[in-house]
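Query protein
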Amino acid sequence: MSNAPAPSSPSAPLKLFNSLTRQLEEFQPVHPGEARVYSCGPTVYNYPHIGNMRAYVFADILGRTLSFKGYKLTHVINITDVGHLTDDADEGEDKMEKMARAEARSIWDIAQHYTQAYWEDIKALNIRQPARWTIATEYVPQMIAFAEKIADKHCYELDSGLYFDVSTVADYGRLARAQTEDGEGRIEAVEGKRNAADFAIWRKTPPGEKRQMEWDSPWGKGAPGWHLECSVMSGEVLGFPFDIHTGGIDHREIHHPNEIAQNQAFCCAGGLDLPANSGARVWMHNNFLVERSGKMSKSSGEFLRLQLLMDKGYHPLAYRMMCLQAHYRSELEFSWEGLGAALTRLKRMYKVVAVQMWKQFEETGQPVDPTNAYLPIPVDKWNAADKTGVLKDFSDALSDDLNTPKCLPLIEEVLGDKMIDNALRWHLLATMDQVLGLDLLRRNRTDLRIRPKSVEITEAEIEATLEARKAARAEKDFARSDTLRDELAAKGVEVMDGDPLGWEWKLA
């Protein structure tokens, strides 16, 4: 997806941390003026938890930053609906087949249901749609063709399938730093495979069994390996080499090294001293979301998904804010207190925006038009904007490996600076919000108000009680007023006396 880019600003060049080289590197696109990005998407066998969704908030910020910097962006995210085993190291059952049996549903129904759930979370977090969603099962013929091209030189066949011989490519495991200084693997070979790290390109259906998802191939009926999928879909849509490949840090250890090996074999490329030989020039990984109770894991039965946050009264954008407050390469510890603080910070921003918008309307009689505000700042306005220095500071923070924790105070600075012309203020906010995606000018504070699932009182009942309380206060019946406030508090409603915007309550 590509939004109209803002004009170039006199800021530092964009530098991103390349996991393959373990250093910051200035972004140099493969195709001038373009940015081609591939993000590892979900395996749709269950609902995504909020740790999974951090990867897509990060990828969204990366894409928005590339658009802001003026590149024509093509972003691809895959949907894995076949081939991913219960252990990322090619062990266990296919996750999709296992869930289909557990829920007594077809694997196709499982894939459709959980893909839709993932897309709903993408929308709730205000993550932009990519240029293309690639669905693994729609690319199986291309996967077979890819495997056929590399099989003679790089693969061997066992009873269970076609395996990739990692010793046939240079620098295997460099991304994960999985080798010792002398280049020898740290792990011993196991029975049936030439090398312990060898992985399946194609998995044969065992004799006497029938999978719900299986295809004919030169190596027998079966299904593609998980690692093959991303190599094929990224290369098919973006071409080798493309610019950036993203994923969670857990992919850095097994999945992405295996992708890289396949890409090297397919492209007849050499070693990884030249990063482009990996299939992508830059490999980027977000760190883990850490939650101490152990409920982040899907195997725990009850895990933290976005819907649970909403059930407890937290708007999804509060979680987006929480992610932005930490650098993507840092661990982010989740707590309900931290989520509440992020929501409070977001509400304060919304409140100031609403107050400033109302003041402008009182002064000019013209409401702020978010549609116009979100258009790129005209070139002749940049000098005025740069008098504050805020756009350069904002762009510099993004150039420093997407340093969003430095970006957020700059939005608050614009909100609090009374010397900025209002028309310019909206353009500044909209320009920064195009990157951070908090929807500051398109929503109001009441949009952030979500009733917890456990709260049974309706909004109509709340408003009626507040009206009764206003009448009691007008009659100076403060005892009655306090009683009504306490009744609301007992039902999870916090009364906010003196709110100048009339947003007089919130659900605790």
Residues 1-9, 179-190 have pLDDT under 50 and may be disordered. Residues 280 and 472 are 68 Å apart (CA to CA).
